[in-house]
Amino acid sequence: VFGKDINLILVLNNLTSDRKSVRVDMSASTILYTRRAVAEVLKAATSVELGPKQGKHIRVKIPYTHYGKYLTTDKRIQVTALCEVMRTNGLKLLVEKTIILEDTNIIIKLPRRVVVNRAVSLEISYANPLPEPVSRCVLLVTLMNQQVKINLARLAPRERSKIYFEFTPRRAGPLQLQVDFSCDKFSHVKGFVTIAVAPA
């Protein structure tokens, strides 16, 4: 989840009946959806001794403080482990994993029944998932081909808040409502819902 530390486990298994020494070089970078690296956020090396048929777990932690400011709107991190088995003429194994971080969830609550030409009040709640305050918070609400920009108060670390949004549907049928939440530390956290508008 975006805003939390990332905990990973690299699992190494020795499938042979000989002892193995393995050097592991780990790195992680924030990337774009095209896989182009933006910034390296982790670099670590360790050596592991594996007995015959033995498995070992290597725990890796990427704190939010390391990746937060380098994350793009794609919210992707590429983790790589290059495992070199010693004394085997440089036998190497590359393990890769792309992590897509989950956004803070925007929650949109609708009344049970929405009727044409009758005013409706929606509850939109949004959150700051980070361990630090955020400011310059803005909600963009898109509905019936119109966009409303709402400037919000700053949010304390991990704070959740809500607003009420009122509108009057002009025709029956499905209506798409989209909410886009941005602030000074992250942008374009989206939430959307389809509203079924009943005839009067």
TrEMBL record:
GO terms for cellular component: cytoplasm. The keyword Transferase applies. Residues 2-86, 106-197 form the Transglutaminase C-terminal domain. SUPFAM superfamilies: Transglutaminase, two C-terminal domains. Keywords: Transferase. Belongs to the transglutaminase superfamily. Transglutaminase family. This is TGM3L glutamyltransferase. The lineage of its organism: Eukaryota, Metazoa, Chordata, Craniata, Vertebrata.
